[in-house]
Write a structure and sequence with these properties.
235 residues, mainly alpha, Growth Hormone, Chain: A, Ciliary_neurotrophic_fac_CNTF
Length: 235
């Protein structure tokens, strides 16, 4: 099993930003727009969203040139970082909505990806993680677009949503690399680029519920991903 893991967790959280940049393979440039400019208009936020999409596409096509051990290690650290940051994002989201009942975040929505993780073998579960992350990406992007209209441009929530969208793509790339190691001769199934599950235009209340459901399920799914990768690393 993973030796000294519990002692390392504190240090991993402290250098989470550095590790994120290394895991992303972009030296932290994915957040350059946000770090270098405080958005002043809705148009700039949409520009950031476009840049985030391009960066995500580039990062997911970066060659897998690291060792098996290093790939797994970075996957574990990035998933732990995402689990923590997504939990904080969910709290921020709920607080930003004002008098918003938390039970709405647990409403049944068939068009939102499930938080479950399935598969009989390690390879099956790694593939399920990869596929589910790719399925979550367009939903996170949709929530960001909706919140861009509802919130002021300088809202920290918009930056957090943008970071979550990018990190989801980075973690999906890590899972792709793991799959290439586990099954080098088997093609990796890619979800549809434009899934039919994205909801049609909604009223403000429906948008709030949809966003909270997406983030709640993503956070639960990431908890399962962390457990699975930890277990996988210890084998």
């Amino acid at each position: 099993m993973l030796s000294g893991e519990e002692d390392q967790e504190g240090g991993e959280e402290e250098d989470g930003g550095k590790e994120e940049a290394e895991a992303n393979g972009c030296d932290g440039k994915g957040n350059m727009f946000w770090q270098g400019h405080r958005p002043q208009s809705t148009s700039k936020i949409f520009l950031s969203l476009v840049l985030s999409t391009i960066i995500a596409l580039v990062n997911t096509t970066v060659p897998c040139n690291q060792s098996y051990t290093k790939t797994i290690h970075k996957g574990v650290k990035l998933s732990k970082l995402m689990k923590k940051s997504t939990a904080e994002l969910l709290k921020t989201y709920q607080a930003s909505e004002g008098d918003f009942a938390k039970q709405f975040c647990k409403m049944q929505m068939d068009n939102v990806p499930s938080s479950s993780l399935s598969g009989q073998t390690s390879s099956d579960r790694m593939l399920n993680i990869y596929t589910r992350l790719k399925e979550f990406q367009p939903h996170i992007k949709k929530v960001l677009k909706q919140q861009t209209v509802l919130l002021p441009p300088q809202s920290p929530l918009l930056k957090s949503l943008d970071e979550t969208f990018q990190r989801t793509g980075h973690l999906a790339h890590r899972m792709n690399c793991i799959l290439q190691i586990l099954q080098p001769n088997i093609p990796i199934f890619e979800p549809a680029a434009s899934p039919t599950g994205i909801p049609l235009p909604q009223n403000v209340f429906q948008q709030k519920v949809y966003g909270c459901v997406v983030l709640t399920r993503l956070n639960k799914f990431l908890s399962r991903v962390v457990d699975e990768l930890r277990s996988f690393k210890g084998r």
